[in-house]
Amino acid sequence: MDDWLIYRGVGAPDPDRIRRLPPPPPWRAFSGEPLPGAAPPIDSSSTRRLGARVAAPPAQDAEALELINAALYLRRPLLVTGEPGSGKSTLAHSVAYELGLGRVLQWPIVSRTELKDGLYSYDAIGRLQDAQLAERQSDDIGRYIRLGPLGTALLPAERPRVLLIDELDKSDIDLPNDLLNVVEEGEFALPELERMADRPGHDEVRVLTDDGRRVPVRDGRVRCHAFPFVVMTSNGERDFPAPLLRRCIHLHLDPPRDERLAAMVQAHFGAGADERNLDLIGQFTREDGDGELRPTDQLLNAIFLTQHAVREEPGRREEIAELLIRPLDTRQR
Questions:
Q1: At what angle do helices 317-324 and 278-285 cross, to 10 degrees?
Q2: Which of 4, 44, 130, 231: disulfide with 92, CB 3.0–4.6 Å?
Q3: Chain-centre distance for alpha carbon 246
Q4: What is the number of other CB atoms lying within 10 angstroms of the CB of residue 16?
Q5: Per-residue confidence band for 325, with pLDDT thresholds at 50, 70 and 90
Q6: Is-contact 104 164, C-beta < 8 A?
């Protein structure tokens, strides 16, 4: 395997490899003063997706690994497209797990999502209510500001955080364009804090983060140090503006097959599980050419259920699997 790869997709932790990442190119270097402390460890959201991570073949093919590492080296977002179940979201969790980058910050996108939702929120009503109860204005404005997943990812850290912007193609038409400046500049302003920055004792305010910490923000601006590893996923339901595409590394993931599928089955069911379930894997992959959509979640469901439902009746194994491995839709070609 190429020595230059930082992330290798081997399914095992190797946090020391992130130290091999060279400094960014000059046009992607950022000036934030690093904050002390490590990111929170990965949580159940990652362990659910990744399984036990037993030793297995690489979870991505050679081209995918090169593009993932290109995004790491160039400090550029990775735009990942592919069918549902192709592993787009899981990729972010896999990188965080293998490189020891902590909990994945997740920003699920819907049609009503705005840029500010990802950056921060300010509870002005809560502050007013507290002031009325205390009969005076609270001086700790930071209690009422919470950074969103994007805002937390842009905090100055020694190591990059991993940010998953999930299903960007579901967004309002303006959101991809609104992301451009933040992605390019690696910083953003909090106007509520900027207005107070020149007051004595308010040049630094501690605010809440998306992962429950309290961190200082100076002069009302968040400036990153290590640009986060950003994974933007899309099911291909819309095209994105050219300026955004120019700032991203594009990776298309095909549905997992062969070694990738074997790695996924082993991760969730243990070493050798792919061999023990060759019949179900074969049943799942035989239908590839019919134009139907079959996410890999269905295969995992079938393997799990047949381990329990037909333990005493092996003859029903294929019958039950057939019920679960049904296509979700018919592709129009």
A1: 40
A2: 231
A3: 20
A4: 9
A5: confident
A6: yes
What is the tens place of the pLDDT at every residue in 212-242? 999 999 999 999 999 999 999 998 878 899 9
**Cβ neighbours around 149 below 10 Å, total:** 23
At 242, list the tokens. Answer: 């050219």
Pairing of strands 249-252, 78-81: parallel
**How confident is the model at residue 58, as a pLDDT?**
60
Specify the amino acid at residue 314.
P
pLDDT > 90: percent of the chain: 52
Sign of the torsion angle spanned by Cα atoms 81, 92, 157, 2:
negative
CA 227, CA 162: separation in Å to the nearest integer? 9
List, for residues 46-61, the tens digit of each pLDDT value: 888 888 655 455 667 8
- From residue 115, alpha-carbon distances to 7, 42, 166, 223 in Å are 29, 25, 14, 17
Confidence of residue 126 (pLDDT cuts 50, 70, 90): confident
State the chain's mean pLDDT as an integer: 87
Which two structure tokens, joined as six digits, stand for 16?
């020391």
Give me the amino acid identity at 316.
R
How far apart, in whole angstroms, are the C-alpha atoms of residue 160 and residue 154?
9
DSSP E strands: which ranges in the chain? 78-81, 105-108, 120-122, 145-147, 162-166, 187-189, 204-208, 214-218, 221-223, 229-234, 249-252
Q: Are 55 and 271 in contact, with CB atoms under 8 Å apart?
A: yes
68 phi and psi angles, rounded to 5 deg: -60, -45
